[in-house]
Amino acid sequence: MLSRYRQRVALVTGAGRGIGAAIARRLHDEGASVVLADRDGDAAAALAAELGGGRVLAVAVDVTARAGLEALMERIKSDLGGLDLLVNNAGIIRDGWLSRLSEADWDSVLAVNLKGPFLCCQATLPLLRERAGSAIVNIASRSWLGNPGQANYAASKGGVVSLTRTLALELARDGIRVNAVAPGLIDTPMTQAMPGEARERLLRMQPSGQMGAPADIAAAVAFLGSADAAFISGQVLHVDGGKSCGLLGL
Ligand code: NAP
Q: Which residue's CA is minimally distant from atom 10 of ligand 1?
């Protein structure tokens, strides 16, 4: 295992399970102190217990609530001394075709998936500015290219891509790189909760016929957040088994 994160501190939102948990594990394995932030504080605490050691902080945080994020920054500063990497991973789906998509499902998806990363970028900025080589990695989705039945989700992830590209420009002079990873279909509680028919349709659209694993996304995040990617900013790395090159099986 590489050790690119020794002496570095990473905050991962939605780290209680799925892709976020895999990212936190990978960064921890590479030497980082990790802050596991999840709306589900028990899930974050369970992962912290599994990882063990003094380099892990588990906190119950809702990424849509500014006050909680500001309190978290105080805690990170006092307990871990600063922050080198923010991974905006927390996200939700509330799928529906346009004719049936409720306003509440539009608002909740945009709030968690797009306003959440905005608030987290803003809250972490003072800490990230203090560290050389700091970075933000946003978890978008291949869906930002368009996905029927996910107008709210695709729009939120398209917003994440635009946020990434714009902040890459805004924060370059602060020495902060900003990139995005756009996963394809990944085997997590989010996709396991989909109706079987929807999952089957998505699997048919996979060039390889296979889903990806959370660890596939974690490896890409660990690269983009590290010094190996020191001259990479404003990019969207699709980790989707090639699906972004065209849809199969429609
Ligand atoms: P997941 O299994 O549903 O895990 C998401 C985690 O985020 C959960 O622990 C959830 O807590 C937490 N969370 C949700 N809303 C939150 C909030 N407001 N504040 C803090 N934490 C919150 O999802 P996943 O599949 O790992 O997805 C992770 C990210 O990858 C998301 O951004 C998703 O859009 C993206 N992605 C996933 C796939 C895929 O195929 N799985 C594909 C493309 C992109 P609760 O349990 O309380 O909801």
A: 14
CA atoms of 72 and 58, how far apart (whole Å): 10
Question: From the CB of residue 196, how many other CB atoms can be counted at a distance below 10 Å?
Answer: 7
Pocket lining: 112 vs ligand 1, CB cutoff 6 Å: yes
DSSP character for 94? Answer: -
- Contact status, residue 233 vs residue 164, Cβ threshold 8 Å: no
At position 177, the amino acid (one-letter code) is R
Which token pair is 21? 């948990």
- Any atom of ligand 1 within 6 Å of the Cβ of 212: no
Nearest to 205 by CA among 143, 144, 113, 153: 143
Give the pLDDT confidence of 151-207 residue by residue, as tens digits. 999 999 999 999 999 999 999 999 999 999 999 999 999 999 989 988 898 898 899
Cα(31) to ligand 1 centroid in Å equals 24
Ligand 1 centroid–CA 173 distance in Å is: 31
Ligand 1 atom closest to 21 (CA): 26
Domain 9-240: what homologous superfamily? Answer: NAD(P)-binding Rossmann-like Domain (3.40.50.720)
The CB of 18 under 6 Å from ligand 1? The reply is yes
CA–CA dist 1, 27 (Å, integer): 10
Strands (DSSP E) along the chain, which ranges?
9-13, 33-38, 56-60, 85-88, 135-139, 177-183, 236-239
From the CB of 182, is ligand 1 less than 6 Å away?
no
Output the pTM of the full model.
0.97
